[in-house]
Amino acid sequence: MNRIIRPLKNFRPSKSLIVMGVMMYLVALMAFGMNHKAELKKEHPAPFIIKKDSVASVKAFAAVYKVLMSPRCMNCHPSGDIPLQGDDSHLHTMFPKRGLEGKGVLAMKCANCHQPTNTPGVHTPPGNPNWHLPPADMKMVFQGKTPRQLAQQLIDPKRNGHKDMQKLVEHADDGLVLAGWTPGEGRTLPPMSHAAFKKAWLTWLSTGAYAPKK
Amino acid sequence: MINLNVNRKSYQLDADPDMPLLWAIRDLIGLTGTKFGCGVAQCGACTVHLNGEAVRSCVTKLSRAAGQNVVTIEGLSADNNHPAQLAWNEENVPQCGYCHSGQIMSAAVLLREKPEPTDQDIDDAMAGNLCRCGTYLRIRKAIHLAAELQKKEGGTT
After folding, report:
1. Counting one residue from A and one from B, how many pairs have CB atoms under 8 Å apart?
2. B67 with B116, same domain?
3. What are the Cα distances from residue A70, in Å, to A24, A60, A109, B6, B120?
4. How much is the pTM?
C-alpha cells in the first residue's frame, strides 16, 4: 500500500516493470520492422529466382506455345494490322485497323463495339475494359511464329512491350490474358486451364526461359 | 434512376442498367432516328456518339452511357446542316434510307478526325456500317463533298 502512494520523485520501477517495458519496446520495434518490410516488399518484390534447366524450360514452353497460338490469344496478336476472329482465326469482319495505339481508327475504335464485359449471346462481341491490340510501334506478333521465334520475342524487352522478368511473371495474371478464359459464348477455351498455363509459364521463366531449337 | 444526357438534354430514366442504350433512346426517350439493324454490333445502323465516339448502341449498356454525352442523328446539328447531312442530300445517297443515320454518325467522326479523308480513310472508317442497298459509292462521294463543305465552313465539326 505504501508503495502505491509513494511520491513520484521517489518512484523506482521494479525489475519486472523494466522487463515488461523492454519487451513492449521490442514488440513495437518488431511490428514496425515487419510493417516496413511489407512496405518494402510491395515496392520491391522479391527477385524472381532462376534455376537454369534447359530441358524443363523447353518442355514448359511447349505448353505455353500451345496456349499462345490458340485463337483466344493469337487473334489479338496478328501478323497484319487487322485482328483475327473466330476459332478459325479468320480476318475480323469489317476489317477494323490496329491504329497507332492498338485501339482502332476513326469511326472503328475497338471500344465502339467491344464493351467492358462480354455481350450476351452466341458470337456477340467479347468484352474487356482494356480491349485492344498491341500498339503499332510494338506489334508483338504471335501469328506465324515458330516456338523458337516466339520464345525469343517474349523475353526480349525491345519486342515484348518493355517487360522485364518481373513484369513477365506478373503478365500471367494480366486482365486481357485472363479474358482468354472467359471468351464469351460460342468460343472455345485455350487448350488448358489458366492455372496450368500459369504454372507452365512460370516454370519456363524460372528455369531460364530457354528457346526451343525450332 | 439513371441519368442520361442525350443531345445536350438530361433525362432521368427508370430502367435496367443492362438495357441496351438503343432501347432507351428509341423506346424511353422517343428518338427513333437511330435504327435497330442486327442487335449484335455487326451492321452499324444503331451508331450514335458516346463522348464523341461512334458506338453501337445495340450492344452498349445503359450503365456505360449513364452520365456521359450521347448524341443521336437528331442532335448532330441544329438544323440538319452538318456537312455530312448536306452532302448526303446533295448526292441523293440513301435508297431505302434505313442504315443512313448510322452511316452519317460514323462519317461525322471520320470528318472530325480526318478533315480531308482519302478513299482508304473512308473505307477504314465506314467498314462497320453496312448498306443492303449498296450505296457505298455514293457514301464515299458524299463524304468527299462533306469534307469540302466543312473546309469552306472553316473548321471541323
Report:
1. 66
2. no
3. 58, 16, 24, 42, 31
4. 0.85
